[in-house]
Design goal:
Elements (H helix, E strand, L loop, with lengths): L8 E5 L4 E6 L6 E4 L22 H9 L9 E5 L8 H13 L4 E5 L8 H10 L4 E6 L5 H8 L4 H14 L3 E7 L8 H11 L5 E5 L6 H4 L1 H4 L7 H13 L4 E4 L23 E2 L16 E2 L27 H4 L11
Parallel strand pairs: 3-4, 4-5, 5-6, 6-7, 7-8, 8-9
Antiparallel strand pairs: 1-2, 10-11
Helix pairs in contact: 2-3, 3-5, 6-9
Bound molecules: iron/sulfur cluster.
Iron/sulfur cluster binds next to loops.
Length: 334
Amino acid sequence: MRYLEHGDVVRIDPQRSHVNALYRRSSPSNSLLVTERCDNYCLMCSQPPRADDDRWIVDELRQVIPLLSPETAEIGITGGEPALLGQQLVELVELLKRHVPRTTVHILSNGRRFASPDLARDIGRVRHGDLMIGIPLYSDVPEDHDYVVQARGAFSETVRGVLNLKRYGIRVEIRVVLHAQTYARLPELARFLTRNLLFVDHVALMGLELMGFAKTNLEELWVDPLDYQQQLAEAVAILSHAGMVVSIYNHQLCVLRPELHGFARKSISDWKNTYFEECTGCAKRSACGGFFASSTLRRSRGIAPVGEGDRQTDGMPRAATEVAPDPPAVSGGA
Ligand code: SF4
């Protein structure tokens, strides 16, 4: 418990002699897990859902939220599927607005529950000043998306959910996790977004975290990011030329094509972020987001330190100022 500091919030379980840190004041990556239940069963879920009755979590969060520092830059809300809480999710957003009004709130949701407009309307009525909901969409082909999330009809509900959230003034981010089942049609998905969901606020194209089901289904999911650079570059070009704000999360700069460097963000939460031996002495070390700690399972064959000659005088990768539109601060990193 040496890493605990003044202002942190912990749960103490005397019977099991456990102490869990629920909030670390100095961390930029605090997330509140609000339920472990989910109505998707995604092939690569990093936190596989559990069906247990966990309504006690919301009771606990009613006590935790008033203890958060008002200086907290960002809080994530995650699950499971937070929208399964229904009105209790609305209540949590209200509590965050009341107790930490200057804190960015980023909710990770599969979007399906917002297909019925009531929940989107009620969250919109809270009028939180800095709220975004991150929603995954894995393909422009409904059956492909449904296969990845293992839920028939999910594509239609998710898209209707996005439309309802925007209708009620809530900012939406589309998240695409790149793996062997999703990368091939990435340009087509990008075109779908520009034609149908041009008004979403951010698109995050994300590397795979090898945790949970991603580990179990590794052979079905793994593709070396070097092998989807063409699709990634095409998708980024389509999205950014249409005026959409696009970011690349969870990728190492030495693996990305130079023209993509300006879109890459340091997105991995501090507590699971690491760098490997190759990174020592790499000229892009300070600009590069590094790896998930779980990346020891599989790594790209493109990982290699970059020499000084590949860096601009301002320390940014060459393409950073040439191609990226105004990037948002990383919200709801992985
Ligand atoms: S070698 Fe350099 S660019 Fe590659 S992952 Fe390490 S720090 Fe990033």
